[in-house]
Each structure stands twice: as C-alpha cells, then as structure tokens.
Amino acid sequence: MAELKKMVVTTTIFIVTVLIMPLNSATLHVPTCRSYCGNITVDYPFALQHGCGHPGFRDLLFCINDVLMFHISSGSYRVLDIDYAYRSLTLHDPHLSTCNSIVLGRRGNGFSVEPWRSPYISASPNNVFMLLGCSAVSPLFQLLFFQGFADRHLPCRNVSGMGCEEYYDCPAWDWIGRSKIGSKFGSGPPECCAVSFEAIKTINLTKLQCEGYSSAYTLAPLRVDGPHEWSYGIRVTYSVQGGDEFCRACEATGGTCGYSDVDDHKDDGVKQLCMCGGSNSTSNCESGGSPSSRGPWSALNILAGFMVCALAWMTSHKN
Ligand SMILES: *[C@@H]1O[C@H](CO)[C@@H](O)[C@H](O)[C@H]1NC(C)=O
Ligand SMILES: *[C@@H]1O[C@H](CO)[C@@H](O)[C@H](O)[C@H]1NC(C)=O
Ligand SMILES: *[C@@H]1O[C@H](CO)[C@@H](O)[C@H](O)[C@H]1NC(C)=O
Ligand SMILES: *[C@@H]1O[C@H](CO)[C@@H](O)[C@H](O)[C@H]1NC(C)=O
Hints:
Residues 1-26 form the signal peptide. With 319 residues, the chain is α+β, with helices and mostly antiparallel strands. The chain contains seven helices and 15 strands.
C-alpha cells in the first residue's frame, strides 16, 4: 500500500516537472507584438513594430500621437477602424469629398497600392469611387483604356446601389452647382463618374485627370436610403497570402508571429518567423527541426523529468 502511494507521488512529480518547468521558461520571455494606437487594437497581420506581424503588411501602419496612420504610395490616411472578423479597414482622407463638401484641385490622395503590396491590400468591391470633374481627354473616357473589358461604354456605373445620380442629391452640390464642373466640355464628360476599384485598379487623380473624388461604402446588409446615409471613407479589404496557418501554429505553441529583417521592399528573402522567447523558429515553438527552437516537450525536459523521478523512486526504496 505504501509502495503504491510512493509510486503515485513519484509519477505526479514526474508529470508536474515535465509540464510546468518548460512552460515557465517559454512564457517568461516571449515578446509581444500586439499593441494599441488610441483605441484601435493593432494585431496580426498588422503591427507597429518592425519585425512583427506579416511581412506583406510591414511599414504600413504608424501611430502618431495616438492617431493610427496607413501609408501607401498614393499617400497617408487616418485609420478609423480595423475589422479583424471581416478583414477590412476603414480609411479617411481629409481631401475626400463627402455629402457636405466637395474638394477640388486634385488635393485628394485617391487610392493606389505599391505593386508588391497589391496581393495583400485592395479597396473593397462594395466601395464606390466617384471621380469628379474629369477632363474630356481623361483616360477614363478613352475606349482603348477599357479594351480588356466586355462593354465599350463609359466605365461609370452604380456600385452596390451607390452612384452619381444619388450623389447629386447631396447638399454639397447645391453649393458648387453641377454646371460648374464639367460644363466647359459641353456635351462632354459627366461631372461625376462612379467606378469600382476593380474596374480601374488605381485611383490616381493626376493620371485620370480628375479634379476630385469621393468614396463611399455601406455596411448595412440592405440598401440604405440615399447618399446621406452612406459612409464616406475608403473601405479596404486585406488578405494574408498563403493563409494564416503559420501564425496560428506559432501562437498555439506560445510564440509571437513576425518576419526576418529586411532592408528592401522586395518580397524575396522575407521569411515569416515564430518568435519563441529567446530564440526564433522558422516553423513554431515546438518544432524539433530548427536548432534554435525550444518547445515544452524537448528531450532535455523529459530527461530532467526522468531524473527527478528516478531520484524520488530511489529515495523511497531506501526507506
Ligand atoms: C474610438 O474613439 C472614437 C472617439 O474618440 C470613436 O468615435 C470610435 O468609435 C472609437 N473606435 C473604436 C474602435 O472603439
Ligand atoms: C499618378 O500618376 C502620375 C502621372 O501618371 C504619376 O507621376 C504618379 O507617380 C502617380 N502616382 C502614384 C501614387 O502612382
Ligand atoms: C443608378 O441608380 C439610380 C437610382 O437607382 C438610377 O437612376 C441610375 O439609372 C442607375 N445608374 C446605373 C448606371 O445603373
Ligand atoms: C528574432 O527576430 C526578431 C525579428 O526579426 C529580431 O528582432 C530578434 O532579435 C530575433 N531574436 C533572436 C534571438 O534572433
């Protein structure tokens, strides 16, 4: 009976040693990449620190005086929200025309992403861009520009029920007058042309020779009633190329997701990394393949467990 009791105690010591010891050492030094900017949570695949997050989103977000900024080739935007469940962000450009004001003079950013980043970031298909006061010689109205598309009409169309016909009902147009923009072209181009990002791929006011732009989206599942109820801003969707299995496996083993250091803006050579306390792994914190890895079930810990166990067993037999 006493033998059995000793055996139970010894076995318990063994299990506790193997389980607790390595977990302690692993959780003590794991760096954290998750952070906040104002009241916005910045989490994978985004990050504010270099080396954290997914490499496709590096050098993208910056926190300046508690304001989260999003920086791409067309300019900087304020981030109003990051929706991790729907994989989207909402951006604000102060020179974006809304229902209450129209900004001309090509001051707006528009929206265009560096080619290397375009697989990761795009404007949402439900987002409408309304280009204002475009020149008659704008590439928008050149048939050749749209040669790849099925119809050879103007690319202007309603997107998710939002279009220029509705936008003209906004008070901003009372101030500016519809005739003020576009009228000099006579029967030329419309003063507003609504497009989807998909149709144009880059909203560059200089290249398209437009004076301004508006951008709107609606999150309501049903069509909302008129342009007063649209949300003005740029709705962006993001996607983690190759999936987020790498990061999920890393986090499941107590690691933090990041990437190896890079000094250029090319994708080659940038590797995802799992940061495991004092070491980095190219898979996860339990992998045996990498020499720098250390996991809760490493051979050394099991050996340590056995030794404690054997010691306890020998001690109990002496008595
Ligand atoms: C953050 O705070 C602003 C006001 O300070 C509020 O309008 C906004 O909804 C908040 N955003 C989140 C994600 O809580
Ligand atoms: C916009 O187009 C102009 C003229 O084609 C070009 O010089 C400029 O670099 C473009 N901007 C961006 C952000 O691509
Ligand atoms: C866009 O919607 C408005 C209102 O429903 C309609 O009058 C207009 O013809 C539509 N335009 C296009 C291009 O479908
Ligand atoms: C792990 O990688 C991160 C990001 O590149 C780096 O900052 C850190 O120094 C690396 N740690 C080790 C132990 O190599």
